[in-house]
Amino acid sequence: MAKKQKEILFCDYFEEWVEVYKVGAIAKITLAKYYNAAKQLRDICPKLFISDFDRREYQRIINVYAETHEKQTVKDFHHHVKACIKDLFHDGLIDKDPTYRVVIKGAEPTRAKKRKFLQKEELSKLLQSLDTSQIGFGWFVMLVAKT
After folding, report:
1. Rounded-to-integer distance, Cα 54 and Cα 103, Å
2. DSSP-based three-state secondary structure for 138
3. pTM for this structure?
4. Alpha-helix runs per DSSP H in 8-105
């Protein structure tokens, strides 16, 4: 039976793995990311059999994906695919973990990261400009800023 399992295409195995282990267990948005990873795998390695899976092949998959994606997106893709591969390894369908010491590559972010907080001086100016003569929005902002 294990021999038969090894003749399965990895992209088919991944899709089945998502259906068995992820559907109904994770949020819809996360499930959509797994489905996207399945589509990407079908594009990148449509003829890769489980029996041919090794570290070099996995690194090639990551490298191809990284050609058109930012590094953080490549990390996310890697984590989704790695979860399935760990199960392959644990179930004895592959002899070695091909994700071991993978090098995550990818483009640098194309847009500048937005600051998600105020600088100390900006907060002081905001607090000084608040109307706190009546209980309302000004009081709410002050409460949030002080806690």
Report:
1. 14
2. helix
3. 0.73
4. 10-21, 28-44, 55-66, 71-90
123-134 confidence digits (pLDDT tens): 888 888 887 777
Residue in 44, 41, 51, 43 with CA at minimum distance from that of residue 18? 41
What pLDDT, on a 0 to 100 scale, did the predictor assign at position 2? 47
User: What does R_g of the chain's alpha carbons equal in angstroms?
Assistant: 23
What are the structural domains of the chain? 2-90 (1.10.150.130), 115-147 (no CATH)
More confident residue, 74 or 118: 74
User: Residue 21: which of 34, 40, 8 has the closest Cα?
Assistant: 34
Q: How far is CA 1 from the centre of its chain?
A: 32
